Amino acid sequence: MTTFWSLFITVITLGTLAGCAALVIWCSKDLKGISDGEDMGHEYDGIRELNNPLPKWWSYMFWATIVFSLLYLALYPGLGNFKGLFGWQSSAQNISNVEDSRQQFGDDSGINQYARELAQANAIFGETFRKLAYKPGSDELLDIPEIAKNPEAVKVGQRLFIQNCAQCHGSDARGQAGFPNLTDKAWLYGGEPDTIKATLLHGRVGNMPAWLDALGEDGVKEVTTYALSLSGRKVNAQEAAKGKTRFVVCAACHGTDGKGNPAFGAPDLTDNVWLFGGSRKAVEQTILYGRQGVMPAWKDILDEDKIQLLSAYVWQLSETENQ
């Protein structure tokens, strides 16, 4: 954390405590010339304010919380870069994944609670994952379509999906704006079993550039009209024709026919499946300002057998949904 932000946090925190203390002091003072229980002349919604002192137990409790806060901030981290007199920290701050934890602490990761709990879970359930993902008596993984035929393996894959993927793709895997629906056939990078596994292992980074500067506002409107026409939408034919001539800058990724290119993760514009919304405004915003999407890599988070089971679950979603 930079010195500026450290000071900013420190000033805000201590200033808030000082403000609370000043408020208690002010409210505890007797107002000169006004007796206890006297009407203060204030009324709100039929309720009149009387000059009654704060309850002593309430004032003492408030002061106790302020003193406790100051002691806590002195002993533990909380004021910017100040680490506290105890120098305590919740975990090794340089650890970003399970592999980092293993390298730093080894298998006996008593300091890192997550790594410890993960090791315990693998000890209990690891053999179950292995039986479902590997060929019997072998270190060779089962093919993903073969795993997908096993109802028990699919259920395990579904639980892995809910734990790790549902936050973005939804518990039903139908996605939301900016996160693909995994139950249809509209795969950005391809829906083959090995391709899905590669996506899970290594992640994906999508980048749709902004075209406002290159096309201008009129050009963006024309290309939007042409893009909408590719999926069968009724549009202004003359404007679509102009957009078609400008579409040459888009064809490098989406193809001259607009059917996309899995090598780039460029979507098919002819299927009426729109990742960020299919309204004219949404499509126009995409062309104007571009879109950036990131699918995280899971190879450092999930073991290979879990990746194989998860891949099988995701693959069979679109296969069974579209039979």
From TrEMBL:
Cofactor: heme c
Cytochrome c domain boundaries: 152-231, 238-318
Transmembrane segments: 7-26, 57-76
Provenance organism: Enterovibrio norvegicus DSM 15893
Domain of life: Bacteria
Ligand binding (heme c 1): C165, C168, H169, M295
GO terms for biological process, alphabetical: oxidative phosphorylation; proton transmembrane transport
Quaternary structure, from the entry: Component of the cbb3-type cytochrome c oxidase.
Cofactor binding note: Binds 2 heme C groups per subunit.
Subcellular location: Cell inner membrane
Function: C-type cytochrome. Part of the cbb3-type cytochrome c oxidase complex.
Organism taxonomic ancestry: Bacteria, Pseudomonadati, Pseudomonadota, Gammaproteobacteria, Vibrionales
GO cellular component, one term: plasma membrane
Protein name (Swiss-Prot/TrEMBL): Cbb3-type cytochrome c oxidase subunit
Main location: membrane
Entry binding sites for heme c 2: M208, C250, C253, H254
Family in the record: Belongs to the CcoP / FixP family.
Gene Ontology MF terms: electron transfer activity; heme binding; iron ion binding; oxidoreductase activity
Biological pathway: Energy metabolism; oxidative phosphorylation
Xref: Pfam families: Cytochrome_CBB3, FixP_N
